[in-house]
Design goal:
This protein has one domain. The chain is 77% helix and 0% strand. The chain is built from 20 helices and no strands. Helix 1 packs antiparallel against helix 2 and helix 16 runs antiparallel to helix 17.
Length: 419
């Protein structure tokens, strides 16, 4: 038994390291899938259990496909180019003002469409804006990554991990806002201030106004914009009724794409071909790896320890749980960390306050490293499509300045809401 558990942990650790480090520039999904296959091949996880584990991510798969459909059809219809021109125009030749506009828009997109949508939908629009403004794109692209995590616990729908973590114990919306509104405001404000200070040398100049005829919002682009707005309304309604978000998001994305393609008499193959499908096996592989770890018995042991600590020192436990999950999310990615945290907190039956601290760690902690969250991985994939590259070290240098203050202040704000 010990040998099997050690092998499971070794395979899961190496697979996670591969996802984070991407040796030989191989895509993230290859390492996650390879780890999952090895667990099955060495009989460390029965095939039936692996399939069931992958099936737990069905809602996430549908959600991601829907968002990727919206993003791809928006790109092809020129919506991002039009939005870019609007942003640059409102910046009034100020790089600093453009930075603030991008941050404000990213906050709204994350709150009402989720952090994954910010990575998938907003990143191409921001890149288009930097091309129009003829400025260095990375400072503005960093905004997409950091606000995707910093604003991801304003509402339950702001991050699918929120729904996974609370599960059937999900607070009502008033209860949610009571616990998380103040910590969210603190996280958003602290992240903005630290980003603005850290990137100040890149934001001193002006931006160029676009020459020539203004970009016209085409019928197809207007339909996609309306579809994105409608998707936000649908997600809010689904969350209010306690429904899963995957199918509604997929339906919205599919309907909007179909309408645009039919009206434009275009082939769906052009959209399907350019979607980053590799993110789906990546998520499936991570779900399987977590199930393998669960079978080693370590998660029940963690739950027992968490329950004992919560009974003895609830306040200290909430701080410790938030900080530990924040760091661990960067070591193993916050998607598997969220699944582990959900299993552990549910089994330990800890208070909403401790679960809230864990959630802040899972949502905000990944701003430390480039592969800390699924949203940041999606952001990396979007950057590669535009020919941009962000190294793990350069992101870490910025993340180590931005994330810790935001995390500590958010946990402090959460402690003020405890009743």
């Amino acid at each position: 038994m010990f040998a099997n558990n050690a092998a499971t942990w070794g395979i899961a650790g190496l697979a996670t390291l591969g996802v984070i480090a991407r040796p030989w520039n191989m895509p993230e999904y290859i390492w996650a899938v390879t780890g999952a296959v090895l667990l099955i091949a060495f009989d460390l996880l029965p095939l039936r259990d692996a399939v069931a584990a992958a099936g737990k991510g069905t809602d996430v798969y549908f959600f991601l496909i829907g968002m990727m459909l919206l993003a791809e059809v928006a790109r092809k219809e020129g919506l991002f180019d039009w939005l870019a021109e609007q942003a640059v125009g409102h910046a009034r030749n100020s790089a600093s003002r453009l930075f603030s506009i991008v941050y404000a828009v990213g906050t709204l997109v994350t709150i009402f469409l989720s952090n994954d949508a910010t990575a998938v939908v907003l990143t191409p629009a921001v890149y288009a804006a930097t091309r129009t403004a003829k400025v260095e794109p990375l400072p503005y692209l960093f905004v997409c990554a950091f606000i995707a995590n910093a604003a991801s616990f304003v509402l339950p729908i702001s991050n699918p991990a929120n729904l996974v973590l609370f599960g059937a114990r999900m607070p009502t919306l008033p209860q949610w806002l009571h616990h998380f509104l103040l910590p969210s405001i603190v996280a958003i404000a602290a992240t903005f201030i630290m980003l603005r200070l850290s990137l100040r040398n890149s934001l001193c100049g002006g931006v160029d106004e676009r020459d020539g005829e203004p970009i016209v919002l085409t019928r197809g682009a207007a339909i996609v914009a309306a579809g994105i707005g409608a998707t936000a309304v649908v997600l809010l309604a689904a969350s209010a009724f306690g429904l899963d978000l995957g199918i509604p998001t997929f339906t919205c994305g599919a309907v909007v794409t179909a309408i645009v393609l039919l009206l434009g008499r275009k082939s769906p193959l052009s959209v399907a071909r350019d979607i980053s499908w590799s993110v789906l096996p990546l998520v499936a592989g991570l779900f399987i790896l977590v199930e393998g770890l669960n079978r080693t018995g370590v998660l029940p042991a963690l739950a027992e320890q968490l329950g004992q600590s919560a009974a003895l020192a609830p306040h200290a436990t909430s701080w410790g749980a938030g900080i530990v999950t924040a760091i661990a999310s960067n070591l193993i990615n916050n998607l598997p960390m969220g699944l582990i945290a959900a299993t552990t907190t549910h089994a330990a039956q800890v208070s909403h306050h401790i679960t809230g601290a864990v959630l802040i760690g899972v949502d905000l902690g990944p701003n430390l490293s480039v592969t800390g969250s699924l949203a940041t991985i999606l952001w990396l994939i979007a950057l590669r499509r535009e020919g941009e590259h962000v190294g793990a070290l350069s992101f870490l240098r910025l993340g180590i300045l931005v994330m810790p203050p935001a995390l500590v202040l958010s946990l402090l704000a959460l402690s003020l809401t405890a009743t």
